[in-house]
User: Which sequence fits this backbone?
């Protein structure tokens, strides 16, 4: 343990990051920018040449940041690069620390889908060696690290022990296992990976010491907890808290609209209270990889203990129904103009789940496109960050973003704002003055032709 901690502190330890998406890539770049040699692993062969040539496939991660991470601290030459990407997982054996940042979606029954974590652990099994640290960052239910990963890695060492009868491997002494939930918030101007405190839980005290030592080199503050289960539960609490409160304002939005009260004005007034209130805002539904998914990891695990998480599941139901409520408002607005939804031309503004980024994971815009198309509408979209709708696990749209011009806006029967990109605020006059009808789910536009949903 002391030897590994020394390598971490003098930054001679090699860090491997598995999964180079919205979590793994910025984490890799952060470690590299702080002087660690980092190997990024991904099964997507398209990403590797881009990263190794200093290019980015995530809009809010600049090419300059990747190019800097590939150079020695202070910037020397490509030969002294600190970050490189590969699909060669045999190089895991050269890593001192391995961090897992792979997706943990839900399956069709809204149950945890851990196949990516298990596939990754199976790969690590082949190359696991004495003295390595493995950390899971993927969001999951309490118990995953100790119930799934620990037995798999112990099995790997058991095979090695058979090959060499003199070898004995024990977690916390010969290898180290921890969980530290990711807290990435893409394109947040105030916080980034380095400035967001990092919760860390180890399988043993020694595992915690090693994992904390690693994150202490790149994160402003680490928050040690007593176990991996506590760390796993912490991430779920954070996102369930947000899910429940968003569901609350989404429900209040419907109630207040019936009463002819502006929910956004109510929130602005309420948040002037300096204590006891945190502002959450309604929208067309939940998006991103965390809030729409994470609560169901806990509800699934809770059934093992004969507990029904009614409050969490009700919040999920309210949020899941929001796209259908928005479509209802679309129908009502068209009806007032003597139009049916079937055959109407609808332009959706914003395909990403959050403003000013290109991340479409679980975006409610995709669900809205599906519902509107199923009801016979002719649907197009515009998004300055998403030029093309690429296939996802759920949707196979073949659509390109259309440009916004006065004549094009005027050609649609209805404009539906789903994502409040700054671009739409900057072009609000163009949009409101040239659109027949606007359904605004984010409180961006004002005007006689604007309806809030």
Assistant:
């Amino acid at each position: 343990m002391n030897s590994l901690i020394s390598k971490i502190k003098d930054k001679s330890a090699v860090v491997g990051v598995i999964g180079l998406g919205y979590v793994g890539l910025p984490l890799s770049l952060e470690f590299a920018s702080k002087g660690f040699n980092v190997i990024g692993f991904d099964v997507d062969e398209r990403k590797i040449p881009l990263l190794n040539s200093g290019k980015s496939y995530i809009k809010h991660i600049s090419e300059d940041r990747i190019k800097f991470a590939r150079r020695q601290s202070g910037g020397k030459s490509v030969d002294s690069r600190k970050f490189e990407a590969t699909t060669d997982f045999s190089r895991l054996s050269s890593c001192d620390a391995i961090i897992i940042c792979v997706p943990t979606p839900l399956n069709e029954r809204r149950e945890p889908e851990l196949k990516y974590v298990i596939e990754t652990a199976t790969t690590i099994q082949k190359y696991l060696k004495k003295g390595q640290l493995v950390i899971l960052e993927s969001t999951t239910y309490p118990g995953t690290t100790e119930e799934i990963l620990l037995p798999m890695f112990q099995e790997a060492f058991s095979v090695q022990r058979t090959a060499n009868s003199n070898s004995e491997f024990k977690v916390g002494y010969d290898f180290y296992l921890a969980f530290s939930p990711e807290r990435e918030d893409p394109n947040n101007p105030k916080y980034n990976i380095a400035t967001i405190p990092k919760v860390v839980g180890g399988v043993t005290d020694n595992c915690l010491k090693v994992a904390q030592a690693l994150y202490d080199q790149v994160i402003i503050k680490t928050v040690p907890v007593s176990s991996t289960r506590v760390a796993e539960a912490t991430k779920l609490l954070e996102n369930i808290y947000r899910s429940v409160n968003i569901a609350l304002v989404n429900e209040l939005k419907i109630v207040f609209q019936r009463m002819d009260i502006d929910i956004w004005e109510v929130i602005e007034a309420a948040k002037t209270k300096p204590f006891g209130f945190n502002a959450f805002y309604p929208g067309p539904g939940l998006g991103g990889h965390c809030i729409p998914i994470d609560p169901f990891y806990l509800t699934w695990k809770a059934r093992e203990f004969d507990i029904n998480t009614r409050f969490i599941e009700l919040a999920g139901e309210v949020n899941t129904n929001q796209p259908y409520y928005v479509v209802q408002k679309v129908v009502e607005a068209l009806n007032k103009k003597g139009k049916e939804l079937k055959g109407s031309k609808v332009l959706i503004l914003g395909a990403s789940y959050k403003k000013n980024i290109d991340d479409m994971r679980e975006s409610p815009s995709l669900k809205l496109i599906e519902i509107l198309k199923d009801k016979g509408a002719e649907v197009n979209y515009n998004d300055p960050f998403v030029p093309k709708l690429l296939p996802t696990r759920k949707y196979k749209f073949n659509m390109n973003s259309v440009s916004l011009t006065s004549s094009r806006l005027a050609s649609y029967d209805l404009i539906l704002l789903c994502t409040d990109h700054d671009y739409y605020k900057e072009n609000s006059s163009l949009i409101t003055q040239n659109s027949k009808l606007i359904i605004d789910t984010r409180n961006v536009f004002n005007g006689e032709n604007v309806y809030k949903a």
In short: The longest strand covers residues 14-18. The chain has three domains: 2-226, 228-320, 322-452. Residues 72-80 have pLDDT under 50 and may be disordered.
